[in-house]
Amino acid sequence: MSEPVYVQLTTRAAPYPPDTATRLSLDADRIVARYTPPGDVDPEMARSALLPLLHLVQAEDGYITPTGIEFCAHRLGLTGAEVTAVATFYSMYRREPTGDYLVGVCTNTLCAVMGGDAILEALEDHPGGVDDPVTLTHIECNAACDYAPVVMVNWEFFDNQTPESARTLLDDLRSGREVVPSRGASLFTFRETERILAGFPDERPGAVEAGGSAGDPTLAGLRVARALSMTAPTAHEPSDEGAPPLGSADAAAAETTKNKPAPAPGESVPPEKGN
Fold first, then answer.
1. What's this model's pTM, rounded to 2 decimal places?
2. Where along the chain do its domains lie?
3. pLDDT at 187 over 90
4. Which fold has domain 101-190?
5. Least enclosed by CB within 10 Å: which of 108, 130, 166, 210?
């Protein structure tokens, strides 16, 4: 009986078409330049651009594709595995095709208690038709607990939602009607939003000029603290109690060794007897 033959198959992602690659390379140059001074080719500094570069290729493809991973890896001198490790660590990077509107329902503790689980169930029972522009998912805390339960669309907040209001939101998105979040300008599509997250200008009317301030729920605790004259505890100054007296031998030793690095492990191990 002959020995089995093992064949290792390796495949590489197909590159972007030449015109797409050229356009993305110009955008990538602008991103990387933010992290490296002019004339500096330090690859470690350039690696800081990986997160916005991943948003750039997600803006191109709608999610993180093998082609996008290879593009980022080649641009920054990384391996595909290194880029994939980062892309799979952060939940904002999608691993599957995403529609024009990524609808995330928070199901973390407070939102769940306030009705987030019911909202997610209602939206799961409210599907769209063929080529639905909505991609529904559950997400962890949106850092907007004071407006729970919260739904996000393309990372924009929709506060104090109910199953009914969330279903209406999906209907508006699917019909193409203009949708304005609780805070911020009218929605962009998912890919347009990803380009903004890559660091390019937000061109929505009023997106930058609107500014904004904290709402009543956010300020409730501050108002209670002021009404009760509550203040934060005062930080104590470091105490010298227990320190060796100035001018002593111990103080001199501490002064001469305080900036020295810790000894290597072998230096602190006493020699064995007889050695």
1. 0.75
2. 18-87, 101-190
3. yes
4. Glutaredoxin (3.40.30)
5. 130
Residue 67 or 45, more confident: 67
DSSP calls for the chain: -PPP--------PPPPPHHHHHHHHHHHHHHHHTTS-TT---HHHHGGGHHHHHHHHHHHHSS--HHHHHHHHHHHT--HHHHHHHHTTSTTS-SS---SEEEEEE-SHHHHHTTHHHHHHHHHTS---TT-SEEEEEES--S-GGG-S-EEETTEEE-S--HHHHHHHHHHHHHT-----SSSSSPPPHHHHHHHHTT----STTTTTT-----HHHHHHHHHHHHTT--PPPPPPPP-TTPPPTTSHHHHHHHHHTTSPPPPGGGGSPPPTT-
pLDDT digits (tens, 9 = 90+) for 213-255: 678 888 888 999 999 999 888 877 665 565 656 556 565 555 6
- For the chain, the average pLDDT equals 85
Q: Which CATH class name applies to 18-87? A: mainly alpha
